[in-house]
Amino acid sequence: MPVPTHLELEFHKEMLAIYRKAKEECGYNATRFLQMVSNDGGIKTAHRLIATDKPSDGFTELWGYKRLDLTVENLVLHPRFCSLFNDEEIVKARERLIEYGYSPMDR
User: Are 65 and 57 in contact (CB under 8 A)?
Assistant: First the structure.
């Protein structure tokens, strides 16, 4: 297994940070998300969650709290991390956020 790059490690840390923020600021304990990130890493988890045809339960839960800023989709669009994802994933993340009424940061 290849050694993660500095950027991949940063992304992983940010995935854990959005979990903590959701728990602290919304009271949402995304146990399954934390388990995925812990077992598979932040990058692999993000690829998996973006690839689905419908948003994850966590995405819809955060939408209910009006906190789509704490979603994987929003983190993927961060200029610092978008190079870790292909164009199709970037478009899918952006479109999902827009569909739910959130104006994502630009790539």
Answer: no
- For tokens 């709290």, what's the residue? 65
pLDDT digits (tens, 9 = 90+) for 44-101: 999 999 999 999 999 999 999 999 999 999 999 999 999 999 999 999 999 999 999 9
User: Does the reported pTM lie above 0.90?
Assistant: yes
Contact 44, 51 (CB under 8 A): no
Q: Tokens in use for 77? A: 């669009």
The span from the CA of 70 to the CA of 63, in Å, is 9
35 sits in the region (left: phi over 0; alpha: psi -120 to 50; else beta) called: alpha
